[in-house]
Amino acid sequence: MMMVRSIAPRSLEDKLSPRIKISQVLGNEIKFAVREPLGLRVWQLVSAVMFSGVAIMALAFPDQLYDAIFNEESVSSKIPIRLYGGALLSISLIMWNALYTAEKVIIRWTLLTEACYFAVQFLVTMVSLVESSRMATGAVLLLVSRVFFVLISIYYYYQVGRRPKKV
Fold first, then answer.
1. Nearest-10 crossing angle of helices 137-161, 62-70
2. Residue 27 in domain
3. Angle at CA 141, nearest 5°, toward 139 and 145?
4. Which residues contact 118 (CB under 8 A, 6 or more apart)?
5. Which of 40, 86, 108, 137 has a CA between 20 and 30 Å from the CA of residue 78?
6. Model pTM greater than 0.90?
7. d(CA 55, CA 61)
8. What is the overall mean pLDDT for the chain?
9. How many domains would you assign to the chain?
């Protein structure tokens, strides 16, 4: 009797099984069919563009950036604002790279970095405003937006870390 081999298409699980086993041996935490929260990639793109835009503005036009936030004409030194721009540019490069990864750990670390940055910026801006005893409209908008951005980043941080529901 002759055995007939069926030519059934391989399932997705069969195709990914060797990759998953190799990844486990190498110690990678890549999950191949991970469901991402709705809007995560859009938020990552918005964050990367926002960080890049503010970084370029701080590097190229430090006086205008300072004036837009604090409503003061000039700063005594442009170096701190340009250093701030350089730091933001470095963070933006991390954000751009995280946009193209599928590893949950990297995505979570970038979201946590974002949330910490926005929280620190909120505190520093708040202390500066209290010390100067005046509230500029740009600074108040910055404070409100930072709280909003912290909440969004933390939301996605926890959503990416959740275990998928079993079906």
1. 100
2. no
3. 115
4. 146, 149, 150, 153
5. 137
6. no
7. 10
8. 82
9. 1
